[in-house]
């Protein structure tokens, strides 16, 4: 399975979604941001990839590294 960075982003139909980088479709849809983050984090850990948490306006507010990077980004 290829490593794809995961994004917890606002869903266009309301709520929050989890979407792999480059994917057209959402992996899942959630009523809360925290629920979307939890799912996205598990996927990122399993794939050893990055997790990007977005604000309501779509901008990135936090990034977590779950890969093999010895110097992961902070904050």
Structure description:
With 75 residues, this protein is α+β, with helices and mostly antiparallel strands. It has one domain (6-63). Helix content is 20%, strand content 32%. The protein has one helix at residues 33-47, and strands at residues 6-10, 16-20, 28-30, 50-54, 60-65. A hairpin with a 5-residue loop joins strand 1 (6-10) and strand 2. The longest helix is centred in the middle third of the chain and has 15 residues, at 33-47. The model has no long low-confidence stretch (mean pLDDT 91). Residues 1-35, 48-75 are annotated as: Disordered. This is DUF2188 domain-containing protein.
Which key phrases capture this entry?
single chain; 75 residues; alpha+beta; 5-stranded mixed sheet; 1 helix; 20% helix; 32% strand; DUF2188 domain-containing protein
Major β-sheet strand ordering = 3-2-1-4-5
Question: How many helical elements?
Answer: 1
The count of DSSP E runs of length 2 or more, i.e. the number of strands, is 5
Q: Please state roughly what percent of the residues sit in beta strands, choosing from under 5%, 5-15%, 15-25%, 25-35%, 35-45% or over 45%.
A: 25-35%
| Shape, per Cα inertia axes | globular
Multimeric organization: single chain
Q: Report the uncertain regions.
A: none
Radius of gyration: 12 Å
Distance between the termini: 27 Å
- Mean pLDDT, all residues: 91
Helical fraction equals 10-25%
Structural class: alpha+beta
**Largest sheet, if any?**
5 strands, mixed
Could you state the order of secondary-structure elements as H and E? EEEHEE
Taken together, the total number of domains comes to: 1
